[in-house]
Design goal:
By secondary structure, the protein is an alpha/beta fold. It has nine helices and twelve strands. α1 links the parallel β1 and β2.
Length: 312
């Protein structure tokens, strides 16, 4: 993929989006912004642009700050931009959180999503019937033994690390599968399953309560939900640490309060949360992301740090 310059901003491609911008105010260039925000690119750039066309105006209105969205080429690039100071805040999952926060006092969580995340295993409906497969009650993920499975990016918490942790909780290693692939674009996972042939199963994320939240409606008849985890968390906002007397620290605290203020009862705020599928944000706790990142670190170390799956 051609490198995207860090100064490329949201406005450069809003004209290609189907949804109109909720604001006529031109986006702020990163060099002129009080704060710069990025996300791990788990979706297409067009989808993220459409989300930021809603999120950024809300944040600017509530904080009174100039805020710019800075796109990332890939997961590693999004992390590096925070390390290099090219952005101030990143929306990140547990895998990226492990890479940025583990044994790194220079980065801290700012606000965490309320528990609404579920890891969902979907299957090709026809293949499931043809193979006469059904998940065992005691260990439902055992249905994946000797099957081909799709995960999200190997850098994804929601579509790789979280499923990997659930598999291990049920004593199933990747080596027990017949094969697996990584599809970097989360939105393409359900299409892979619906088409069949390459894989019959995939792990997808659900943030809204609907297990098929990430599956286009026209594919609902082709796929079926085999298993879903309990509600938990995966995503959070992280920021570099700044001295409490600095302007940057004050701006980040304003941004944090804007995230914490979001709730589903207010239609305008619900519209912002719905762009992610979140139920809201809360203060970080010792359990999340702290304990979760330690759990990811243990799993990453035992897996040798490298996925055995094919990269699409």
């Amino acid at each position: 993929m051609t490198r995207v310059a860090a100064s490329w901003v949201l406005g450069a491609s809003l004209s290609a989006c189907s949804a109109p911008s909720p604001s006529l105010t031109p986006p702020v260039a990163p060099k002129d912004a009080d704060l710069r925000l990025t996300e791990e690119p788990y979706q297409s750039q067009e989808a993220i642009n459409q989300r930021m066309a809603i999120v950024i105006p809300y944040l600017e209105r509530v904080t009174g700050l100039r805020i710019a969205y800075v796109p990332a080429i890939n997961y590693a690039h999004s992390h590096q931009m925070l390390r290099d100071g090219e952005v101030d805040v990143i929306n990140i999952g547990v895998m990226g959180g492990y890479r940025l926060l583990h044994n790194n006092p220079g980065v801290q969580p700012l606000a965490v999503q309320k528990p609404s995340f579920r890891s969902v295993l979907i299957a090709n409906q026809a293949a499931l019937k043809h193979k006469a497969l059904s998940p065992p009650d005691a260990s439902p993920l055992a249905i994946l033994r000797d099957q081909r499975v799709a995960f999200g990016s190997r850098s994804s918490g929601s579509t790789f690390m979280q499923p990997l942790l659930h598999l291990r909780d049920q004593q199933i290693e990747l080596s027990a599968l017949n094969g697996c692939v990584h599809e970097p674009n989360t939105n393409h996972l359900s299409q892979l399953v619906a088409e069949g042939g390459m894989v019959d199963f995939a792990f997808i994320p659900s943030f809204s309560g609907d297990p098929l939240h990430a599956v286009p409606e026209h594919l609902h008849e082709a796929v079926t939900v085999v298993w879903a985890s309990d509600h938990s968390r995966n995503d959070f906002m992280a920021a570099a640490v700044h001295p409490p007397t600095s302007t940057k620290y004050r701006h980040l605290q304003q941004l944090k309060m804007a995230f914490l203020k979001l709730n589903l009862n207010d239609p305008a705020q619900k519209r912002v949360l719905d762009t992610w599928g979140y139920h809201g944000f809360e203060q970080p706790t010792a359990d999340f992301p702290g304990a979760m990142i330690n759990k990811v670190a243990d799993a990453h170390a035992s897996a040798g740090g490298v996925s055995q799956c094919q990269q699409l």
